[in-house]
Amino acid sequence: MTMRKFKTGNLIFTALFALLSVFFLMPLVWMLSAASKTEKEVWTFPIQWIPTDWNLVANFKAVWMGDVAFGLFYMNSIKIALISTIATIVISAMAGYALGKLDFKGRTLIFTLMLAFMMIPEQATLVPRYIMIKELGLYDSHAALILMGMFSSYFTFLLRQFMIGIHNDMLEAAELDGAGFFRIFWSVVLPLSRPILATVGIIKFIWTWNDYQGPLIMLNSTKLYTIPLGMQFFKEEFGTQISVMMMASVAAILPLLILFLALQKQVIDGIAIGGVKG
Amino acid sequence: MSESAVTRKTTGAEPKTYWTRKRREQLAGWLFIAPEVIGMLVIAVFPLLFSLFLSLTEWNLVGGLSAIHFVGMDNFVELFRDNRFLLALKNNVLFTIGTVPVTMLLGVVLSALIHKKLYAKTFFKVAFFVPYICSTVAIAAVWQALYHPSKGPINQILMQIGLSEPPRWLVDTSFSLIAIMIIYVWQLLGYQIIIFLAGMTNIPEELYEAATIDGASGIGQFRRITLPLLGPTTFFLAITSTISSFKIFDMIKFLTDGGPNYSSTVIVYQIYEEGFERFKMGYASAMSWVLFIIIMLVTSITWMTQNRKVHY
């Protein structure tokens, strides 16, 4: 696009939108503000956006150093999200390579079935998956969540769409050098797919971090809880102490928000590809 | 076919072994796809079929595997006499009607303005997208405080502007579902904006330039160029949003437990309640299949009407 001159109309719209987005994000601003206040000041009206009586440290302590082990929930969430994300990337990238670049019997059939699998809603299989996990003796373990979270026909589809666009010359050149299919996958396809792998990784991480339904059904012991379940637990313990609840919400949201802001291009592009091609 | 003359020549040098290039590629293909295929069979296909079987039985999990009784279609018959389930079905329909058109309308208008009229587009995309990446549960906790019937800022403002008895939102049987719809629209709007913007970027700029030369106004251009060319995007969003509104669960579980008095219950919440609180596995599976069939119907509309899927 060519450089345009600043138009007054567009400047006005931009200013209006700036106001609109502040208004739109008001609930989050309110959360931050409430998390820094004393319980009494949370409810003052008109809203006291900047606390007169800062209580940030006490609320922080209540969340991180109280009886409810929020730090433990954090470690659990990080562990599950990291392992599920890595496993998904590996499994989906392998499948994407096979579907996009290898010629084998049944490929078209598998690909078609894969598109069909995308339609099976997780919510419709909650009961049988719970029974399976129980029968396998994995109920109330992180392994249950990771097992349920590492296969994704959606991400396989995204990776396949990307990998099919990699030039065959590069794969053939590697083959001339004597590389086998595994070596080609590892040292040619994966490095070339870095942008889409980053996109898939960050989106999968966010989804797993925020997942509430899975842990709700698969976990029982408090010490295994992830952050969303921890929030539930916290609500039962501190439901009436809004300032502390808001501090817990900040703790659940902030790390992901920072990760998102740092990688916003990958996240937004990834969501847009899913939408345009899906 | 990805095989080229070059590669055939290299491998042709060793034709005597059993492991020809073709056979090796075949094997590699199967090995690379195997984990995903096995995984999908185990976590999606088998459970779906298993739940079909369960839906024809009566089984209280507490009784163990020996307590399974085959009851035929009884569960499905019972479903349509179950007032809670019927209410859940109705609430899901209301939820779709109340959220999908609003979100899409706001989404298309806001993204058209962002696309055509604003500077710092990325900033606005990011700003509207923030709620979508936030933990639904954490966001729900914030809104619960905002909705507090007597002290919450929303009702304080409503009382300020003269509404002496504002709705009691989440604890009000006639407002609980609406309160959740508002949060849902707020969280989903950014997603719609991203998808609409992606669709708009694909519209050739020349069309707008030509229209400007012909003297078409901004609103005229939106109606005659943007909207018609966004057809596929709009269609995609209508279908996916309808499907996801039928899957709503997190906010309802966290905020209202389907209440007060089942006023905000939905299908997935009923599956959860029957299956995981009452342990009626057969009955919950029958509900799951109703959900699955609804989603299949909505999706099959996409497949029947959208032939352009072929370009995969």
Automatic annotation (TrEMBL), chain A:
The keyword Nuclease appears for this protein: no
Q: In terms of domain of life, where is this protein from?
A: Bacteria
Q: Which UniProt keywords apply?
A: Cell membrane, Membrane, Transmembrane, Transmembrane helix, Transport
Concerning Pfam families, the annotation shows: BPD_transp_1
Where in or outside the cell is it found? Cell membrane
Q: Look up keyword Cell membrane and say if it applies.
A: yes
The family classification in the record reads:
Belongs to the binding-protein-dependent transport system permease family.
Q: What is the lineage of its organism?
A: Bacteria, Bacillati, Bacillota, Bacilli, Bacillales
- Source organism (scientific name): Paenibacillus phytohabitans
Q: Where are the transmembrane segments?
A: 80-99, 111-131, 143-163, 184-207, 242-263
* Protein known as: ABC transporter permease subunit
Q: Which InterPro entries match?
A: MetI-like, MetI-like_sf
**UniProt cross-references to PANTHER family, sorted A to Z:** ABC TRANSPORTER PERMEASE PROTEIN MG189-RELATED, ABC TRANSPORTER PERMEASE PROTEIN MG189-RELATED-RELATED
Predominant location category? membrane
Q: Which CDD domains match?
A: TM_PBP2 (cd06261)
Q: Where is the ABC transmembrane type-1 domain?
A: 74-263
How does this chain sit within the bilayer?
Multi-pass membrane protein
Automatic annotation (TrEMBL), chain B:
Q: Which Pfam families match?
A: BPD_transp_1 (PF00528)
Q: Membrane topology type, per the record?
A: Multi-pass membrane protein
Q: Does the keyword Transmembrane helix apply?
A: yes
Q: Which residues cross the membrane?
A: 27-54, 93-114, 126-146, 175-198, 229-249, 286-305
- Which subcellular locations apply to this protein? Cell membrane
Domain annotation ABC transmembrane type-1: ranges: 89-302
InterPro entries of this UniProt entry? Answer: ABC_transporter_permease, MetI-like, MetI-like_sf
Q: Which UniProt keywords apply?
A: Cell membrane, Membrane, Transmembrane, Transmembrane helix, Transport
Which family would the database say this protein is a member of?
Belongs to the binding-protein-dependent transport system permease family.
The name of this protein is ABC transporter permease subunit
* Organism in which the protein naturally occurs: Paenibacillus phytohabitans
Source species taxonomy: Bacteria, Bacillati, Bacillota, Bacilli, Bacillales
